[in-house]
Amino acid sequence: MSTENEGNEVSPAPSVPPAPPSAPSTADAGGTAGQDAGAGDTAAHVPPSDPHQPAAPTPGIAAPTPGTTAPTHPGATWPPQPPTTPAYAQDAGSHGTGGHGTGGHGAGGPEWGAGYQPAPMNPKSRKGGLIAAALAAALVAGGVGGGIGYWAAERNDSGTNSTTVAASDIPADLKRAPDSVAGIAAKALPSVVTIDAEGAGGEGGTGTGFVYDREGHILTNNHVVATAARGGRLSATFSDGKKYEAEVIGRAQGYDVAVLKLKNASGLTPLPLADSDKVAVGDATIAIGAPFGLSNTVTTGIVSAKNRPVASSDGGSTRSYMSALQTDASINPGNSGGPLLDARGAVIGVNSAIQSAGSGMDGQAGSIGLGFAIPINQAQRVAKQLIEKGEATYPMIGASVSIDETSREGGARITEQGAGGTEAIQPGGPADKAGLEPGDLITKLGDRAIDSGPTLISEIWTYRPGDTVKLTYERDGKEHTVDVTLGSKGEEK
Hints:
By secondary structure, the chain is α+β, with helices and mostly antiparallel strands. It has 7 helices and 19 strands. Helix 1 runs parallel beside helix 2 (127-157). The longest helix has 31 residues, at 127-157. The protein starts with 25 loop residues before the first helix and ends with a strand. Residues 1-158 have low confidence and may be disordered.
């Protein structure tokens, strides 16, 4: 007996009049039987239990033949609707609400039973014989199909009642290529740490960092360790569970970079650093971190954009600026300070910020596929300064500009007055020497277009103090280009 229709009630055959003496045409009987047998073969597919799949037809109601009108049934809806699936929040770099999609249902899928469907009535006298022959052929075909299905199950299950087929051809010692995501993650994870920061008042949070050198220095974000920088406690835990106390060696608030030093750690393996200037849009990326405290989480994506001007904040008055690498790898709260790797496993950036659509889990925003990382070339330059001097220096032009993140003017406008009533153009500074004046609209720095104050700051900070760069500005409707030698300033206290 066929197992495909177990539990599916089949409508009883209609009353059939006695067959006339003349036998039906074998061609007619064979054609009708072939159609019913085909339905039986199609029905051999039993779909898995899945809330996003249509429910099985109501017992006793046959599925409509494609191209026909759906049957009506009191109290029922056709096609059957899937059960409502609850939405679940999904965590991202900063906490957020994950999207919730609804499963689609394609039309014209396989039928889920070989329900009997009578042939159309024919006014000819031998109609009864045709119907009876078709019914008999359908029943025989169903029985043969069931027998074959049962025999196959017996062969594959070694005498059990299950129809599950074991994948016996997969090697027991499955090996993953070193350049696969699994291979890269396995090599990088031992060099990534989860950072627990606790302030003097007990406040704190979780972030990520990675081994920068064999001396025990850990590279991370400033906003990860800021709460513990004055009188607090820091610890770093590796993927193998080893935990070390740590101290802040130096931090740069504007760059959002910090360096820690592990206490009594040895045998560390630093992650290799790539050249972030050579990264291309579309390159594969791998992010490692502790989103929402879930340590050693690995996510993948691509480089979505380069030189993306980003002004971010840790919720306080401190702002940081970066000309960032944008990635769609999932980055959530707790990923901050973790490495963004390329397809070789080398670090191309330090994950630092996300753009979010709104608040989500615990009131924190989450990833929508817009993550931003400090290019490793800049982070490495700052880290060297922090290790050697304990503080970082910033290149500057000596002019005050509006920090509106969107500018309808298409540039960065030099303000009429500086912060705290100071002069907008620093006397004797780079901008002053280049002839810039309050009210000038800066539209280009080097070969980068400038559309706002944060964009200008982000681009300036990709250079070093002492570098000379071309600056384009507009004054009274006329465009001018000058050479500016960047000055230097220390960390603002």
